[in-house]
Design goal:
The protein is α+β, with helices and mostly antiparallel strands. It has helices at residues 3-36, 39-63, 78-111, 123-150, 153-180, 185-213, 221-229, 265-281, and strands at 234-245, 249-258, 284-292, 295-296. Helix 2 packs parallel to helix 6 (185-213) and helix 4 runs antiparallel to helix 5. The radius of gyration is 24 Å and the shape is elongated. Mean pLDDT is 81; it is low at 65-75. Residues 15-207 form the Cation efflux protein transmembrane domain.
């Protein structure tokens, strides 16, 4: 296994493990928020869910077998489309529901009547939230370190998302501390802020992943053709397709004709082409169909 393949495999494992850990933490937050009747924790769970979908999109980007082959180099996949619409529905419905409950809570507080969603804060649940903060912080640090080692920008983006999630959870704990001291208004105000911020987080997620989901040529074919022809041994290249975002991650698919029929030339040329594109444009995954004048190699 080459060093590039090793880095690629490790990046897949990192995203996969982080994805399932974040889904587990999301489930714990939802159950804890419902047990405590905390609107702020339920609203913060939306942010945890957004992080989970961000990791899911990253995982699909690095494991999808149809993209490197070029069959879907142009156009987004059906899975990504489904998940985008699913997340949009959940975030919209969740934010609206939380804001509606917040309004009811505020009206009850103003009238000094029983709260329709009474918050029950206990020390064990606060300790559990503290453990969740420590866990997500550890995940964020791990992804940040790996992003520098593996040089995959998506790991860095996910690390930033996890750090943001950690900070929001810490704010929720602070607001629940105010409820512990007898002021339920803290939980309501925090929930309203987080529900609104969830919409912004969703938009930031889509903005970052969108270039990998939609039909977008990363590099003009003629530019890649000129770069590839500078590699010694290449006689001709055509059917060049690229997709993604330069500097972040993109895919390239092309057909090559070599000048020589030497058996060892094809792997060498493939490595040189990939290195040339990577040096100029950043992280890339390449699929090459190589042949010479006598047929496919």
């Amino acid at each position: 296994m080459t060093d590039r393949q090793n880095h690629y495999l490790i990046s897949r494992i990192i995203v996969w493990v982080t994805l399932w850990l974040m889904f587990l933490l999301f489930g714990v937050k939802v159950l804890t928020g419902w047990e405590m009747k905390s609107l702020s924790l339920l609203a913060e769970s939306l942010h945890a869910l957004i992080v989970c979908f961000s990791l899911l999109f990253s995982w699909l980007a690095v494991i999808s077998s149809d993209r490197p082959t070029g069959r879907e180099i142009y156009g987004h996949g059906k899975r990504e489309t489904f998940f985008v619409f699913l997340l949009a529905i959940i975030v919209a419905f969740g934010s609206t529901g939380v804001l509606w409950l917040c309004v009811r809570q505020l009206m009850a507080i103003a009238r000094q009547t029983d709260l329709p969603f009474p918050v029950r804060v206990t020390i064990p649940l606060l300790e559990l939230l503290g453990f969740l903060v420590a866990t997500t912080l550890g995940l964020g640090i791990f992804n940040r370190v790996q992003s520098r080692t593996r040089r995959y920008p998506m790991l860095r983006f996910n690390a930033n998302q996890i750090f943001k999630e950690t900070g929001l959870t810490a704010l929720v704990i602070a607001s629940l501390g105010g409820v512990w001291w007898g002021e339920p208004l803290f939980d309501v105000l925090m929930a309203m802020m987080l529900a609104i911020l969830a919409l912004d987080s969703f938009w930031q997620l889509i903005r970052w992943h969108w270039p990998l989901l939609i039909e977008q040529i990363a590099i003009a074919p003629e530019v890649l053709e000129q770069l590839v022809k500078e590699v010694e041994g290449v006689a001709h290249c055509d059917n060049i397709r690229s997709r993604g975002l330069v500097g972040r991650f993109f895919y390239v698919d092309m057909h090559l004709i070599l000048e020589s029929t030497e058996q060892t030339l094809a792997p060498k040329v493939a490595r040189q082409i990939e290195q040339a594109i990577r040096d100029r444009y950043g992280p890339v995954q390449i699929t090459l169909a190589i042949e010479n004048e006598k047929g496919i190699r």
